[in-house]
């Protein structure tokens, strides 16, 4: 067997239908590369391996052409100009470049930054670093449904505010912030607007003009592209400047040096185009699956609480707290389903989700939450099996819980005076 046959066989392997593995319902953590995307990437790992910066021969020109095409695909997906797209290693790096880059470049104008308490860690940790450098950050509260209050947002703007950063679609609870309204407020106050759209592209229409974004972070692996590739949109009119964070050969118009990973870039471009093409059909199918999952759980399990607005939310996400059950125990009991409690990025820390806490949820309910991420390859049979498993395991865990027993007996747990230990 020669190598091209091996590649052909591997790329035809079914993606997720594998009875020996758990049902994958963690599409907000990451997605598999769509086979159509993979097919377009493969030649750039082998035959067309040139360096896009090699200007003197055909190997370089072929790579450059592929990079240009992908840049156009990503630009088209967000209604931007290809010259406004900077390749990075992912949304984390894009957000670092956007916030540190803008903060450093415009520090003469002011030192104040606005963001939300429910942002992704990529934003929150970058803001913490900027605080250590002397910048001041306002972390705005959100309402019970996860949405920011626009009046509070506008009130947080100060004369020295240089940039605000808002998550388009929340990775834990899937809520969609009112981006156009936020963009309008920020433009009126001449404050730069950075948008983390890592979880938005392919799920909701993303248009940098409609929401007046100045910078936007994107990621390949959240939309059926490869991991390790992302992009930062940086507006040209009116021009936005960011100070480079990675220095070297001056690639990407000096904003981000490093040899371009052609195959990854081709994958991100193809994934972005496909994400927009399939947005409506994906959303329709996935929405039905999500409703089926929710209905199934609600019919079979009492005392469940939905986290985050259902109205302003992408259909790909369901985040539910199962009262009287500890989230980690539930996840351990649910070995046949791959889901997250809290966010995928922080579930190693075993702390209750800061996003759910920001919605005003108690520690207990935050601890008992499960995030279901439904995606392009989820089937109805997988949803039905999940409902069965959840109903069975939650029931079993509650049987072991003295608090559940008391609740069943009608005792109001809030009225109990617990003895101090
Ligand atoms: C909303 C959001 N922003 C940023 C990131 C980071 O993206 P990447 O993995 O491409 O660095 C993620 C992924 O966890 C995310 O969900
Ligand atoms: S879910 Fe139990 S420690 Fe967080």
TrEMBL record:
Pfam families: Aminotran_5. It is found in: Cytoplasm. InterPro entries: Aminotrans_V_dom, Cys_deSase_IscS, Cysteine_dSase, PyrdxlP-dep_Trfase, PyrdxlP-dep_Trfase_major, PyrdxlP-dep_Trfase_small. [2Fe-2S] cluster binds at residue 345. Pathway: Cofactor biosynthesis; iron-sulfur cluster biosynthesis. One of its GO terms (molecular function) is cysteine desulfurase activity. Its cofactor is pyridoxal 5'-phosphate. Its main location: cytoplasm. GO terms for biological process: [2Fe-2S] cluster assembly. GO terms for cellular component: cytoplasm. It catalyses: (sulfur carrier)-H + L-cysteine = (sulfur carrier)-SH + L-alanine. Residues 23-385 form the Aminotransferase class V domain. The modification N6-(pyridoxal phosphate)lysine is found at residue 222. Its EC number is 2.8.1.7. The active site is at residue 345. The keyword Glycosyltransferase does not apply. Pyridoxal 5'-phosphate binds at residues 91-92, 171, 199, 219-221, 259. Keywords: 2Fe-2S, Cytoplasm, Iron, Iron-sulfur, Metal-binding, Pyridoxal phosphate, Transferase. Belongs to the class-V pyridoxal-phosphate-dependent aminotransferase family. NifS/IscS subfamily. PANTHER family: CYSTEINE DESULFURASE, CYSTEINE DESULFURYLASE FAMILY MEMBER. NCBIfam families: IscS (TIGR02006), PRK02948.1 (NF002806), PRK14012.1 (NF010611). Master enzyme that delivers sulfur to a number of partners involved in Fe-S cluster assembly, tRNA modification or cofactor biosynthesis. Catalyzes the removal of elemental sulfur atoms from cysteine to produce alanine. Functions as a sulfur delivery protein for Fe-S cluster synthesis onto IscU, an Fe-S scaffold assembly protein, as well as other S acceptor proteins. Homodimer. Forms a heterotetramer with IscU, interacts with other sulfur acceptors. This is Cysteine desulfurase IscS. The lineage of its organism: Bacteria, Pseudomonadati, Pseudomonadota, Acidithiobacillia, Acidithiobacillales.
